[in-house]
């Protein structure tokens, strides 16, 4: 969060990553057009843009304002070539659940029409119960799939965050079920005990069976992107090159065969 945009892009590239997830406030600060040129020059694609949504008003937007903000997010995604825009439903915010669900379904249907025109995917992200009243009243994969079943739009999938969903009961069965519906997997780990409600750790540094979870996604037919997504004040304090090196090392440790394959691809694709 504290890293200059250009520094982040170039350090990602030098550490062997070819795709990056973008955070809308940082993108807006740098400028979408400038970012598109920088990313193209660096040979970096954009896996996702986070976030839009908040259809229940819990983020300070009225419903219509949330829709217009979603349109802005889609426009930004199209400029930088982002494959997916990540959506959050919004907290319950005094609504009855039925009304909140209707707002989410109607809002995403509206955004999906514009997204289809721009060639952008949408991915709805469930969040753990702690965030029920602030960020998302959708707290399980099953609840979120229920919303997708109502929406019935092929360009709308799931964004699954291991920190938020990794402890769901019977996860092995659930992962194989949700994998075909999933566009994006946020890879991180769950520390024990949590230092704050937002604190995450790198894959392999916490209590989740990260490799087993990722393998189950692949076995279940997942064809999207794995994206390292770690909110951590402790990690953000590291020098940028050390932070990116830690990310690379954690992936190599957690899933060595997959990381070796990605690393070979990077070497082969890199200019001489």
UniProtKB/TrEMBL annotation:
Pfam families: AP_endonuc_2 (PF01261)
Occurrences of domain Xylose isomerase-like TIM barrel (ranges): 15-239
Name by which UniProt lists this protein: Xylose isomerase-like TIM barrel domain-containing protein
